[in-house]
Description:
With about 375 residues, the chain is mainly α. Among the domains are: about 1-60, no CATH class; about 240-350; about 355-385. About 65% of the residues lie in helices and about 0% in strands. The protein has helices at about 1-15, 15-30, 40-50, 60-70, 95-105, 105-120, 125-145, 150-160, 170-180, 185-190, 200-220, 225-235, 240-245, 255, 265-285, 290-310, 315-335, 360-385; strands at about 75, 90. Strands 1-2 form a two-stranded parallel ribbon. The longest helix has 29 residues, at about 360-385. This is DUF2336 domain-containing protein. It comes from Bradyrhizobium ottawaense.
Amino acid sequence: MNDIDRLSEFLQRLTPLSRSCLLSELERLELCGIDMPGSSDIQSRLRAEFRKDGSTQARATSPSRYFFAPLELLLIDAAPEHANMGRISRNTLTPIWEWICRDLLPTMARDYIKAINDQVAANNPKEVLKVASTFQTKVVKVLESTFASAESTEFARGKLAQYTASRTAFDDVRKMQHVLRAGNALPKFNEKLPEKIVKFDDGRVAQITAQLDAFKKSHPDALPFALALVARRLTMPWQLARLATKAAASKSVTDVAATPYACVIPMVLDRLDDKRLALRIALRHNRVLVARDLLAEIYDTEYALKVRIDGIEGCEWGIRLQQLMDAIAALVSAEVSRFPSNVGHILGSRRLRSHDTLGGKLTYLAWKGRDVVQDGAAAFRKLIGQT
């Protein structure tokens, strides 16, 4: 009881802002896999104060919620340190908002908060959106000025570091800038996408590529976010890689890397890392069936990348893929080793690797046969062109 009393006394001595930032930081560390003794008790107490429903996901207050609304479709509940091209960690919003209000535009932020609260109280949603849009434009302009020189950029980075220890939170500020600058273009692009892309076949790939080409002409800096919106529609995230492999002259890693949408390969690897983190959490909480399904998706992604990109093992993509698979193998090995060797573990089953089954091998042979036909046709067309 003495320890609990001392903890309560310590927390109450902190300002509400400090307690809110402390909660975000503890959740960030947990997502990074860092276990801190007593952290769960502190998080429970702080969630009871700031999140009445006890949610583990940060929920912004009204003024900041309206400001960050254009980012909503791109937010993920992952550690800021986790690589996520085209997506933004929800945990960085609290420190970014405090940085905007206290350092970047303190006077304008106070005016904005008052104006938003007044319009919300008056039940005037159109004015609320107008006020939020105006402040978003002001923030974007100030950020452009801030990023204009290395000195001002580093100064801003140092100020943001006062609110979070995350090394990559400042990268999310730049992402936010690109999203806000794109305005309504991303929502309009999102509306034109199919609700669900069950089969990402050649026709659908061509259709989505045409939409992306048009979007990229006007908003090149926001392209990763448009790609992230496409990925949300796919039933299998690894299929995003088809935007690059389909456009490539061949399956060689060099040709795939030369396509306009080669950036989707790192994005697929980001999502593979998502699965790794989810697998670690599932195993920590003994959710073996969840872990089994995650592992099956992980193996499918690994297989798809290796079979669709020749020579991937020797490039940067392949090195990262191998590092991820080694880390996943270590998690599985640690879990399986908890049981006697004569007891089979569901995570050790070869059935999780669908490509090792008869159906998977037949599919692989069909792919290889199709590749041979396509490569032969391409070579023939090239020969005819030369003559």
